Amino acid sequence: MKIVLTGGRALMSDYNGTNYMGFASALPTSVIGKRLEKIFFPTYSDEHGRAMLSNYSIAKIEATLIRAGFSRDEVVVADPTKLDKVVKEDTEVLGVTCMDPLGVGYGSGIVNMAMILFGIVPRGISYMSKSFLDVINHPSVKKYKPKIIVGGEASWQFLDLNMQEKLGVDTVVIGEGERVAPELFKKAVNGENLPKMVNGPPVDAKEIPPILTPSIGGMVEITRGCGRGCKFCTPTLLKFRSIPLKTILKEAEFNLKHGGKNIGLHSEDFLRYGSRTLIPDDEKILNLFEKVEKLAKKYHADIGVDFVTAACTMTKPKLAEKIGREYVNVGKRCFIEMGIETGSPRLVKIIMPGKPLPFKAEQYPEIVEQAIGVLNDAGWPVVGTLITKLPEENEDDVIKTIELLDNIKDLDVVPFVLPFIPMGQFRGREMVMLRDVLEDDVRRELFIKGLDKSVIQIKRDVRIVTRGITKSIFAKFALTLAVHYMLKKLKKIENMDSNEIEEYLGKIERRAEIAA
Q1: C-beta of residue 242 within 8 angstroms of C-beta of residue 214
Q2: Could you report the per-residue pLDDT of 159-174, keeping only the tens digit for each?
């Protein structure tokens, strides 16, 4: 094949039927051995190595290249575990998508911090990172030396950490791929020199082609971008667009015809589908769900959504409840994700002024609390991310976030407190380490309170997390044991003072040095 498209095993797996277990990819390789790898990260392909299910972004690039004139005989979406069957002497270019290739993303950060907090020394890189490196270091890739083009939401890591040349990556694509991929891959196939870095501009929704390989989890993009302009987010999210309904339905039915059991509607904020403002358009979104529901009933499939904002939820709370009760959460509880980030109106004004619109920054904590309640009533437990050590964050800002955590403690919410990672307009700033959080009394309280609530919530919703896993009895048992251990450890840590925390971390660091 002239063009091979793939991603690490962590991105090319369906996680045995439940996307929630994708979080396991943030665990270090010392935890994810061969046995767990097979359970958590199975891949599916034919005898030639062509993937039967694809990461959605790779499927989009495949469709883009086919539309640009390449044939199906020239382009293959490959199973990363069978690259020896597809990367041959005639392979000119390898296109790889990534989410956290160098292990410095939010997922790896929170997992490493939590493991250290629980007295466990993380050994090795994250599985997400390992699975990416397994692709570009594959023996067939090293032998035939195709050009390597890397894109995806974390492609910035190669530039910011100066790892592009060391890892042998020819081109890093920052942003969207539909407009720049055809020219890049044509140059690679023709043996021309490739640019070190390319910025992929936002494309019009009508320029985005429907996928040609079924997507993992039945994912179907309904909107792209966000447009709220938070300074810590990637530029890709700056422009908001709604995908034409015809394309959405075509992709959804394509997935179902190829054995899919879910229609996973992907968006940064599903309630904004079809709207030209920050206010949901009832007619457009209800029309979307009515049409999707017909497909779901025809193929006996489930409908899911992934992201929503507190602001949109509270502009049309009855609309959110209607969708949850009548279209998505029919007889099932399922998680929905919300970027909370902070409980400080002051920080909202400085770093994420678009976050609360059309409400005021001063209303934001109350809006978040109310929105979680509305989503809970509609059948959604909420996974809410918070960020600590944001630029310009002071002690009062952290206290405001702790107050928000206290206000939502009785709601169905999994509040992940994440260390600030320098992305978006903050690229180039120093990374936040565990000591930066735990040695500060107020931030430690925030981190531990959030983790405590998250663990308790996961214990309650263990069936949601493991739903669909083939070997679910083993997964439920392992997760339940882990939860009990974490709760016991958290109670002990909560009662430590600063000196005891310092001594505790010192012991773990010494163990890490010995292990290294």
Answers
A1: no
A2: 988 999 999 999 999 9
**Structure tokens that stand for 276 in this block:** 């030209």
Share of the chain above pLDDT 70, in %: 86
Structure tokens at 257: 């015809």
CB 212 within 8 A of CB 59: yes
Burial environment of residue 239 by CB neighbours within 10 A (0 to 12, 13 to 18, 19 or more): middle
Q: What is the separation of C-alpha 141 from the centre of its chain, rounded to a whole number of angstroms?
A: 27
Are residues 15 and 40 in contact, defined by beta-carbon separation less than 8 angstroms?
yes
480 contact partners, CB below 8 Å, separation of at least 6: 459, 462
Residue 263 β-bridge partners: 303
* Residue 146 to residue 93: CA distance in whole angstroms: 5
CA distances from 286 to 205, 291, 312 (A): 20, 9, 15
Q: What are phi and psi of 418, to 5 degrees?
A: -105, 145
DSSP state of 359: S
Q: How many whole angstroms separate alpha carbon 293 and alpha carbon 274? A: 17
What average pLDDT score do residues 192-209 get? 94
Dist. CA 6–CA 2, nearest whole Å: 13
| pLDDT-derived band at 426, boundaries 50, 70, 90 | low
Asked whether the bond before 358 is cis by omega within 30 degrees of 0, the reply is yes
Task: Indicate the helix (H) or strand (E) that contains 413.
Answer: strand 413-419
Rg of the chain in Å (alpha carbons): 22
CB 373 within 8 A of CB 413: no
CB contact burial 65-85 (16+ within 10 A = b; e otherwise): bbeeebeeebbbbbbbbbbeb
pLDDT of residue 34: 81
User: With 60 as the cut, is the pLDDT of residue 470 above it?
Assistant: no
pTM equals: 0.90
290: left (phi over 0), alpha (psi -120 to 50) or beta: alpha
Are 214 and 259 a contacting pair, CB within 8 Å? yes
Beta strands in 420-470 (DSSP E): none
Beta-bridge partner residues of 420: none
pLDDT value for 422: 61
Residues 6+ apart with CB under 8 A from 289: 303, 323, 327
Cα separation of 442 and 479, whole Å?
29
**Nearest residue to 105 (alpha-carbon basis) of 221, 26, 212, 195:** 26
Higher pLDDT, 264 or 39: 264
- Of 10, 43, 23, 210, nearest to 110 by C-alpha is 23
Give the span between the Cα atoms of 80 and 85, in whole angstroms: 10
Q: Which residue, among 498, 504, 507, has the nearest Cα to 445 in the 3D structure?
A: 498
Say what the pLDDT of residue 477 is: 60
